[in-house]
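Suppose you are handed only these lines of text.
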Amino acid sequence: MSLTGHLLARIAQDGPLSVADYMTECLLHPTHGYYTTRDPLGVQGDFITAPEISQMFGELVGLSLAQSWLDQGHPDHIVLVELGPGRGTLMADILRATRNVPGFHDAAEILLLEASPTLRGIQAQTLQDHSPKWIDTVADLPDAPLFLVANEFFDALPIRQFLRDGNGWRERLIGIEDGELAFGLGPRAPQVALKDRLADTKDGDLIELCAAAIPIMTVIAGHIGTYGGAGLIVDYGDWHSLGDTLQALKNHEPTDPLTTPGHADLTAHLDFEPLALAARAAGCAHSRLTAQGVFLDRLGITTRAQALARPLEESERNTLIAAHRRLTHPEEMGNLFKVLGLYPTYAAPPPGLEP
Ligand code: SAH
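From them, the structure of the protein bound to S-adenosyl-L-homocysteine can be written out as follows.
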């Protein structure tokens, strides 16, 4: 049975699905899920991420984390973690860039949180010289200083959507209309988790809630606050989100999120404020939310690009210049993507970020 068939049968039996349940089925269904069945990244795939655009991204992220490790007295056993490592490119670039930081590789146990068996296989190949281990949940993180990166991980977590109706909310649901999947609205109900949003929304506004992100953030921030370490959360989004940001991408083009379930990537903009509040509540400090372009500039991406460009032929050099622009320019990824840094309350933020 196709995923559409499975979803229609599930809705016919149990009633409409929340957007979160729909995203989970589309992305992670064991046999039809988007991530479980394919490698979605790169020119051949449906979307491209910063580390797949250029090695410079991972190199600078790696040096920022390694500098935090040095600043915190270079503890001799740490875990170096990536959430949602895709093809393993980012972690490979981090490891190559930090090869010459004395003691860093010896101290680091590499752990990858990945739900997709297909992508785990690709990560194992990319990182075969570094013997990474995989974990299924952040609850499996050991009690040790945690140095972590998550690029475009949180945006893949399922969100629920709510439409403001008076002083209550109606949840956006996916049901069946004329035999096909269709959006609808649930009954009006108060939502405890949304009571603070009555102040900054009006009738008819749509807001999104990513409940799955909070427990993950609480665990990560608790580890960094307690054992030391640093975290770099990079994603597209803003401090507060407003409006429908559910997006389906197929072959690098936006598509209707309901027409090809399991065959298109589904994401939503990340709402950073609830994550920052969860980090603080867990006893961890967080940086100012910083545009990716500013973060990479402060870490010296232009100097790095110049060094890489020197030996290149003209066409390769143009590709590198385009990659630099794509990662940093405010009209490309530079402003759309933001970085939130996590660090212990007694330490400085990771380089590239401000308290
Ligand atoms: N960080 C990579 C890939 C981003 S794509 C890069 O920058 O290129 C999102 C990644 O998160 C994929 O590896 C996907 O399989 C993984 N992922 C999505 N939802 C997940 C979940 N609930 N648990 C673990 N991994 C998940």
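What can we learn from it? The chain has a mean pLDDT of 96. The radius of gyration is 21 Å.
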